[in-house]
Amino acid sequence: MLTLFSRQSSSRCCDGLSRRSFLRVGGLGLGGLSLPGLLRAESELGRGKSQKALILVYLPGGPPHQDMYDLKMDAPSEVRGPFKPIATNVPGIQISEHLPRMAKMADKLTFIRSVVGAKDRHESFQCVTGRLSNNAPPGGWPEIGSVVSKLKGGAPAVPGYVNLSQQMKHTPYNQGRPSFLGVAHAPFMPLERGKEDMSLNGVTLERLDDRRGLLSAFDNFRRETDASGTMAGIDVFRQQAYGILTSSQLVDALDLSKESPKIRERYGKGTAKIQGDAAPRLNEQFLLARRLVEAGVRVVTLSYSFWDWHGQNFKNAQENLPDFDQAISALVEDLHERGMDKDVTVLAWGEFGRTPRVNDKGGRDHWPAVSCALLAGGGMQNGQVIGATDRLGAEASDRPVHFQEIFATLYNNLGINPHTSTVSDFSGRPHYLVDNEFQSIKELA
Predict the structure, then answer these.
(1) Which residue spans adopt a coiled-coil conformation according to this UniProt entry (predicted)?
(2) Is 4 exposed, middle or buried (0-12, 13-18, 19+ CB in 10 A)?
(3) Which ranges of 226-275 would DSSP assign to H, the alpha helix?
(4) What is the value of pTM for the model shown?
(5) Do residues 108 and 341 make contact, with C-beta atoms less than 8 angstroms apart?
(6) How many CB atoms are closer than 10 A to CB 237?
(7) Fewer CB within 10 Å: N-end or C-end of the chain?
(8) Which residues contact 248 (CB under 8 A, 6 or more apart)?
């Protein structure tokens, strides 16, 4: 298949490039909207030297804070539930009995019990942007991975932003929105639409070279006739895309067979079965995330299981918490053993918390008033609890932590000042990465 877009076409992509600037040869998409677009980010504002990275674990549906990190033993039985707290290796910190691995390494973790600013909406938007979906500029707020792709790029032959999530039935759970930053900064999705980019589709390297030569011939002609100059530099991005397809760096990072059985066993398997209308409970995503940041990816996001437990809350928790405990603990331990804990930040959270009172179906309903988050790595002062809720776990009673404070912390850990760095929307208007009233979490400095 060879597709050429007409020179007269007025259709433009989100980043302002006309469709005639792209050419697709066969199934490779060289010069299309996938790999080369992602790589274009590397040239804008320069690619940083640092290997600072973020692994963001999204728990779709909203996990129950009072059954994980903030048990309320003095509350009535219809609030506290049947779970018991256990001591951690940090004196004075207790968490759920179903998180024993985290308890043994709490000195490497930070439990935030007082996250505020959520909305009662089943969507990933706030968890990956730090913003509310309303009152946004045209195109919406970009995800943190897209912002980092824009400002930092990735390592050579590796995209800056990778999303390991599979497409979920409840569409608002899904990530992958670069918004006004354009498709050049959309995430590479190796487990979903990115599969096309990771496969030569039966084309040998010799045929790939032939196609590259044909593509070059067309581009030389087009460059001579393109008075606007939009073709300038396209060869650079295409060459990098060709490099990804023909080098082993990214493919190797996604190949778990290259890991030792001992490491894979540490992370566990979970289950490939789709949970509810969200995601499978795949522990190996956590290992893939570590391998990707080790290969130079700046931001990796993944979606884990389904946490919207309006019924059978405690049964579901007993099934999910042990797998989550194993996966997140293995990831943090792995990062420390590899000396990556100072550079890689780990964040795990959902869109809101759950009601204090258990309903008549044995579940907990939506509760945006307060929720929880787990942080690790990033060179932060971990081994602490930040914030507290009242006796029922209903409101933040001490040190409320806003979503944007967490995002300010993430950006700073990535070497980006969220109050001086900007990204511009379609109209050219610059936007700071977080509102000025929100600073990084001082307790973690």
Answers:
(1) none
(2) exposed
(3) 234-246, 249-253, 261-267
(4) 0.82
(5) yes
(6) 21
(7) N
(8) none
Q: Which two tokens stand for residue 301?
A: 């996001």
Triad 428, 429, 430: Cα angle to 5°: 110
Cα→Cα distances 238→34, 188, 219, Å: 10, 16, 11
Residue 189: DSSP 8-state: -
Residue range 53-192+252-444, CATH number? 3.40.720.10
List of residues 6+ apart from 419 with CB closer than 8 A: 408, 432, 433, 434, 436
SS3 letters for 352-403? CEECCCCCCCECCCEECCCEEEEEEECCCCCCEEECEECCCCCCEEECCEEH
Cα–Cα distances (Å) from 313 to 57, 281, 375, in that order, read 21, 17, 24
Q: What is the pLDDT of residues 269-328, one digit of tens each?
A: 999 999 999 999 999 999 999 999 999 999 999 999 999 999 999 999 999 999 999 999
Domain spans in the chain, listed from the N-terminal domain onward: 2-46+195-246, 53-192+252-444
Residue labelled with tokens 């996604």: 254
